[in-house]
Amino acid sequence: MVIKTLQSLDEQNWPHSGYEVIVMDNNTADPELWRPVEKWCNGRGPTFRYLHQDDVKGAKAGALNIALAQSRSEATHVVTVDADYQVSADFLKASQSALTRTGADYVQFPQAYAHSQGRLKGVDAELEEYFRSSAEVGDGAESVLLTGTLCVVSKAALIACGGWSGRTTTEDAEMGVRLCQAGFSGRYISQVVGMGYLPFSLRDLEKQRHRWASGNLQTLLLHLPIILGCKSSLPSRKRIALLAQLTAWLNVSLLPALVLLIGLLTGAANNFVVLLAATTVFLGLGELVWRILDRGLRDRQALGTILGALASRLALAPASASATFDTMAGRRFQFVVTDKCVATDADHGRIPVQHTIMLALALLCLPAAYHAGFVVLAATISLMLTWPAAALTSAQLKSYRKAVTGLKQEFMT
Questions:
Q1: What contacts 62, CB < 8 A, 6 or more positions away?
Q2: What is the mean pLDDT of residues 309-331?
Q3: pLDDT category, 412, cuts 50, 70, 90?
Q4: Rounded to whole angstroms, how far apart are CA atoms 163 and 175?
Q5: What is the pTM (predicted TM-score) of this model?
Q6: What DSSP designation does 347 have?
Q7: Contact between 64 and 71 (Cβ < 8 Å)
Q8: In this structure, what DSSP letter does residue 56 have?
Q9: Which residues does 308 contact at the CB level (< 8 Å), separation at least 6?
Q10: Alpha-carbon distances of 218 from 209, 210, 225, 374, 407, rounded to whole Å
Q11: Can you tell me the distance from the alpha carbon of 145 to that of 41, in angstroms, rounded to the nearest whole number?
């Protein structure tokens, strides 16, 4: 989609001649893949510049900093667009209008996905819930966090904050916290200005969610004094908004779920710790259902869309729970680029093994849970729900992948 993205930028009616497009590539080792992009950029005149650099430190954050350093001295704002996104013809005009209208130092547009209409309504709705809920809370406090693509940021603000940092795997959200701390205002603009691609399998969607959850929790822990500290200079509304956004993908159910299952398997179903674990799992399920249901009802979504969104959130719950636990345990992660390749892979349609293991263990525990009371039984059944949710979500992604495969040539160019 790189060339398609650049073509959509090239076809724009530029508001003025000061715009420059820098294509930064630090993830393509094969010259046969990046040379055509370089050639295309070189043939477009001074507006387009192509930068290729190997062994970039700091992953995406490092690449962004290189591009920032290479930008023109007279540039006032930096726009980030991922390679798999194709922006609308009025993207730059919409960005300029949003900045002027709000007076913000940076704006964030929602992420949307091409060719998903009618196939991934539930998955789309589950992802959109973040923007319709958490990002709008951030907008109300003028402290919206960046989400990595389709964001427009004042270059002076970026330089004042020291550029992007590779200390977390969500460098965009971490940058957003530092922008807020430095006194810059950020707004969320609820207008679709570009579409990219979703991961094509549940396995890859889980990897993406793991990075989002772990990276945002890393950011929260890194900036805990700013967000929750007594001496923080941020007003309460901004701190609440930052907290809401950084915890949107978290799930604390992994350890309680393990305690519950182990307790039931070892005959300790009536132990207070097991009951406490079951209560935590049950309340976690309730919070998950409430967020999706509340958003769906307020947006008057169809019942099928709401159920699909619930399935998607349930299917991704183990990945979010694992990311939350791993990060709290001090595990460090490397930035991993989300696979958006539609190449044939027999594993694309498979349900991740952890869902099958969870279902099998919960079924084994069901008789003991039945005799342990409503809360324990409900918590055990909720653990079983992740498997059918994963099956439904995986089937939707398979349909989506099949549709995009028909457009494979366009996608790869």
A1: 26, 56, 164, 166
A2: 95
A3: very low
A4: 8
A5: 0.90
A6: G
A7: no
A8: -
A9: 120, 121, 122, 123, 125, 126, 392, 393, 396
A10: 14, 12, 13, 36, 37
A11: 31
